Amino acid sequence: MNGCIGDIRQRVDNEWFYSGYQAIYQDDHHHDAHPYNVSAHHVVHPFYSKSKSYLTIQKCQQKLACDSELHVGVHYIIRGMAAEADSDLAVFYLVMARGVIVNMNSKTISIKGSEDSEGHFQLSLPVSADLSPIARLLVFAILPGGEITGDSAKFQVSQCFQNKVSLHFSVAEDLPKSHISLNLHAEPNSLCGLRVVDRSVLLLKPETELTQGSIYSLLPVQDLQNYSNDLKSHEEHYCELQDPFSKPEPSGLAMGDLGQLLKDMGLQILTDTEFHKPTNCFIDRVYDDSIMYMNFFDAADYLEMDEMPVLAEEMLDASNELNINIEANKIQPPRRIIEIRKYFPETWIWDLVPVRSSGIVSVPITVPDSITEWKGSMFCTSHVGIGISNTATFKAFQPFFVELALPFAVVRTEGFTLNAKVFNYLSQCLVVKVTLLNAQGFTVTAESDTEHMTCICSQDSQTFSWHLLATGLGQQNLTVQAESIASETLCGNEMAIVPAKGALDVIRKSVLIKPEGIETELTHNSLVCPAGKPITEEFQLELPKDIIEGSSRAYVTVLGDILSSAMENLDGLLRLPTGCGEQNMVKFAPNIYVLRYLNKTDQLTRDIQEKAVGYLRTGYQNQLTYKHRDGSFSAFGDTDHEGNTWLTAFVMKSFASARQYIFIDNDTLGDTVRFFQRHQLESGCFRNLGYLFNNALK
């Protein structure tokens, strides 16, 4: 329940004033405490009413919770009603959110038989997701004298959705390879996109996280305020009826009226009742002299709307179904199965999950091998609307484990140091034996021992190193084992223990070994037109004589679109225009053709479009610096003696093509057209002027 009660009311008819308040506080918990004063202030503005009748809504500063009830009080002072008997007055109220009237209703109040009647009543309004994030309430009444009086208030509403979605893990923390479940709650028959990623992914780009706030930021209108200045106000329209050149007289008195309240809410009203304060008009001679010139300068604004691309991805959920159950401190331990930690994804789950009529789904999952914190969220759609869950957190952790610090790649014949760091988060010390079990594709140097043993006490860690020499090629695995062993040796002043569970951790990670030398790539292209018949074409692959053994590889790509191979590397095709006037245009023009191709083939994504359009705007601004006064362009602008005909033609053609994506000044194109008109010969050809450095532009 949301209640907004308790306020200080003041009434003012025709002037504003500064009001101060004081409250006395005394701390009863300390005997030597003294009372102290806390002050506040508020500026009260006048509100116009012909009959001096008013409605006042109690303001509420707290944020309203969704799926609750708002109880708001309305105070009234009604004058001019019939004094001989009680009468009823209809009070209307409407609620607006996101620029739409969500609710409109009325309430009848009883006015006592008095010329000056005061009182209050309460409105109960349901707070739903339709009112989020900002709701506006307008209360007004039409008095018998033909006057409208009222008040408005704005309320902050929590961000929420009609589809109530929640997500949580069955446990908050567990070991790697454990079997747990994800519990999903949503509206029945919802389709939910489920995502669980490593915490580090969100740390890199937190702004890309899908949250309630990011979805609400996409709303075209969150709160409607005022309206276009092109619409004349009541005062301006009233004065124009008196005299075409008259204007409302400015007033230093900030007096409000119902008309201003409606404008603040973006509302227009059609009525023959009175709801504006009186307007005084005067003739503005400066305005009279300049009005004739203002009509010549109108501009049209265009708003481009990007299509929201919908990206669908699928990922396989890998799982392992074995648990480690190790019992230590036995003289002759039974044969045990050693589980190796080797699955370290950044994205654990990325899947679509249907929610049936029950509205609840439990998804069984297996924890990956990473020692990390996982972040899960869910986005659902259904017939009632969309919904998004709060972020659910799961921690994959074990108190004793080993981590490897590896480079992404090394070059064959080069050496590097493999570092393994062992962590002990148990409450007692351990004697740990760390072994390099497997170094496939590497040779361990003579000075490195494959096995290390040391004490690691509580909340401590140790790093162990091996010097390796790369000998293989491709992805090669490195496997390290850390084991807590029984020992009578003291670790400092403590006796080492062997944990009953989790005394052994084995980790395997891969390193890419690249061949030495310089990479060379040879490409054979062929265009074939089968025309319904099978075609066979042979290529003769000749390898260089000095090729590094084991480094050769080949692949074949078959494409049904001539430009498909180019579209695989769009970041290489989209280039930021830089350089002189010629270099800038060489980088500017391809961006137009890439945008046009992708748009025609329905491959244009929002990210690519934003990147390309940004490059076009930059290139356009750069090119304007190389423009001559006569409308032509050259490589270095005004430092050149004259503009070049070929470059100018290229610029004009490219700018005309880019107009569908960015703003191009019509005057710029007009100057260029006039340049060609001045230099057109009788034969219809154009005079070749200026110097062109890159003849390929022709």
Give a quick rundown of the structure.
The protein is α+β, with helices and mostly antiparallel strands and 698 residues long. Belongs to the protease inhibitor I39 (alpha-2-macroglobulin) family.
Task: Give the termini distance in whole angstroms.
Answer: 74 Å
User: Describe the biggest sheet?
Assistant: 6 strands, mixed
The mean pLDDT is: 80
The CATH class of the domain at 2-156: Mainly Beta
Please compute the radius of gyration using only Cα atoms: 38 Å
- Helix and strand content put the structural class at alpha+beta
Please give the share of residues in helix: 10-25%
Shape: flat
**The CATH H-level homologous superfamily of the domain at 2-156:** Macroglobulin (MG2) domain
Return the CATH topology of the domain at 2-156.
Immunoglobulin-like
By DSSP (H or I, 4+ residues per run), the number of helices equals 11
List low-confidence stretches: 5-9, 11-16, 286-334
Number of strands: 33
Report the CATH architecture of the domain at 2-156: Sandwich
- Work out the strand percent: 25-35%
Domain Alpha-2-macroglobulin: 347-436
Keywords: Disulfide bond, Protease inhibitor, Serine protease inhibitor
Family: Belongs to the protease inhibitor I39 (alpha-2-macroglobulin) family.
GO molecular function: serine-type endopeptidase inhibitor activity
